Amino acid sequence: MKSWNTFGERIARAVPDGALAGYCARIARLIRLDHPAARALRVFWHHPKAWRYNVQMVRAFILNEMARGHFQRAAFRTRTGVEAPLAVMISPTNRCNLQCKGCYASAGTGGGELSFDEVDGVVRQAKAMGVHFFVISGGEPFMWPGLLDLLEKHRDAIFLIYTNGTCITASVAKRLARIANNGPALSLEGGREQTDARRGAGVFDRIEEAFARLREARALYGFSATVSSANFNAIAADAFRRQQIDRGCAFGWLFHYVPVGRDAQTDWMLTPAQRIELFHLAQRWRTQDAIAIIDFWNDGPLVGGCIAGGRRYLHVNANGDVEPCAFVRFATHNIRTSSLEDALLSPFFSGMRAQQKAHENLLVPCFLIDHTAELAGLVNDTGAHSTDGWSAGVLCRCGDDLAARAEKYRAVAEPVWRALPPEALGAYKHWVPEI
Questions:
Q1: Over 80: is that where the pLDDT of 274 sits?
Q2: Is 92 exposed, middle or buried, given 0-12, 13-18 or 19+ CB atoms closer than 10 A?
Q3: How many angstroms from the chain centroid is the CA of residue 103?
Q4: DSSP character for 139?
Q5: Residues 212, 220: contact at Cβ < 8 Å?
Q6: Fewest CB within a 10 Å sphere: which of 6, 230, 235, 378?
Q7: pTM metric for this prediction
Q8: Is beta strand 330-331 parallel, antiparallel or unpaired with respect to 322-323?
């Protein structure tokens, strides 16, 4: 632990004098304060894995994404007047070997796919803005033939990969560990019963085999769980938490089920009470265990609310559409006819970022499920089109139900939000010096 506590100071001393050294000194301060994001880095640092990962953490994440990237993003802001994102998510293919119920991406045997040059071009555009953190999803990303070559080519960046795990062979696991700039997150729905019910018979056992291969290869990996009203109790159980630690997971992502894509329905959504309970559950997990937990919706206070619309991230889908979020399936721009910068400067993205500033309660951040009418207005005013063939219908069909659910949740979330300690409310301001 002592080596980690002095890690920030050693990084700051290793960087030449100047603005970059000052930024590294601020990172060192966050480590001393044990900020939640710094705590996650500490978990990654001490997690048993190949030594190459720590080298890549310093090079790609701390120096490139957090430090040098800070000044690249500042230059982009000076030139364009808007913030560059901290992360770019890319779904290179919509092909998938599973047919999960309620898949947000509506993935399957058909659908779009990007070429290697197209994905590489997106990565290079983003790196020029100062982005060195990429999220790869799908479809099933390991069915896209260029994935491992992409990781190999961009060793100066970090890649989080959302996968169903069924395509991770022993050789794939070994190569992931050798490249060491990646972290696959394997999707679970709870235990065997819940996972096979949504993903198909026998899938749970195949995921277990993938976890074993990654562990044998000394890779860095984690889990991803979509939490719904159907599986909430299974995921909230202490046994689920312990199982992920026993599997060797360094991190875990919790996603609330939202009505997007194939078989979209509001009945699977979390109740207001479940949503708040999950918020408290994630806090307990972070303090109890050596695993970094991220709750994509409930961690609004840590990231300043909604991060979509390029404020802190955006999504490029398998057809090249530039979407504000993987769950907000609308776009006005496509990488095949325009640039990421064009999308960031568009009225659709700009309007979303402007409206985010009016959302005071950061536990109520989401345009899709918390501010549905605002999203519908933005789509209508900017001429954004549905990119999946379902989302426009979902807004019309489920809009009233989503609004009613949001009102009930807001009544529960408001007292929790106001009771959060000042250090929680101000966490984001301390974490990102450029804001």
A1: yes
A2: buried
A3: 16
A4: S
A5: no
A6: 6
A7: 0.93
A8: unpaired
